Fold these 4 entries.
Entry 1:
Amino acid sequence: MRALAFALLCGWAAFAGPAQAQKIYEGSEAAALRCANTLALTAVALARAELIPQNEKEVMLGITILMLERHVSGTRSQKKRALELMRDRRSVDDTIADYRRNATQCLRQFPIN
């Protein structure tokens, strides 16, 4: 499931150039990455469990992409790698718990419009 979530989220990264040097994210950028990861994985999990329709999942993934574009520096490859690391360090249950606790704050802290 996590692989599918990441594939859906990072399909936009397919056009990224050659691998870049690893970037370390801190502070608000690290928080934005965690929020993006939380929204994306939760969207895919809810859709897979048929708790939300596909169009709602797509909206949540779109929000995630905009959050990354507007609040996280670096190339698409660097952002993709950072999301992979975050995804691999957190369980799906922990990520969904983060969503329940922090989704509203994430959207306030990292607006997309």
Entry 2:
Amino acid sequence: MRLPEPTGRMTNHAGSQDDVAALILDENGMIIECNQVAEKLLGYPSDELILHHISMLLPQLEAGPLIKGDRINPKLKFMCHCGQLFRVLDRQCQSFFSELHLVELSNQGGPALRAILCPASQ
């Protein structure tokens, strides 16, 4: 699968440990929590990310469900496992590429995911 060409100026994000952003998503892909690194990397304060769909940041995730049944969508899990790069849009609509790691979490309200972004070196 070929990634679409990003629009806008590419931002230079080094793939250091300090650039790892973590977001907690509900079963519908809505952001319910994020760490300070995510705020800094993406340029949004947490209150502007909460209750927005993850596809606002990762447009590729608009195409299908993140969870099928009570597990991560197998196709998405495979893409993440293979290290496919996903295009990420920050608040300024600047693009950068990142690995995406998804971790299933147990949540009393239903399935939840931790989405970890690891920006690729450019």
Entry 3:
Amino acid sequence: MKVLLVMDIQDLKDKTKFNKHLKKEGFLPIENENFAYEGEAHTHLFNTRAYIMDVVSKGLEKSDFNSCKLMFQVGENPMEAYAYNHKKKNFS
């Protein structure tokens, strides 16, 4: 299934490092879009959701940032929006 990620990231210090991490994990930037990525999912929706949040969290931690809101869609299934929690180091 096709996966679409869209993020609103404030004050990202190293976008190159962030993009490199996402690319390594199979999410490619969408041309002419800021913080929009696409990829493919080959697992159950619940596992894919957890994987996406883990990949984005690790990329953010490597890059230093102020805040991040994440929305994504897996196939025809849009997911709710998530905000990164710095204290817990995950999305909620």
Entry 4:
Amino acid sequence: MLTRYKQAVERAIPHLAVKNGVVNIDSIWVATSIPYDLLQEILAREDLILPENVERISIRSRVHAGEQGGKPRGRTKSRRRKVRN
């Protein structure tokens, strides 16, 4: 069973964005829809074949950690409304 998931990951990686030789685990997760814990197990294997332009895969997830990227949008403070007499 793991071999089929491994093949799916190997086929998906060449189509993903590579930044400085690194592919993010979140992009693999989105592209393949493989459960996250199973994906971590597959990426830990030594027999995973990576394309030439991929040096490593970043296992640190921003999605499962609940982090949000970028600057906060909108107002950060609530404004008081003036009361009319």
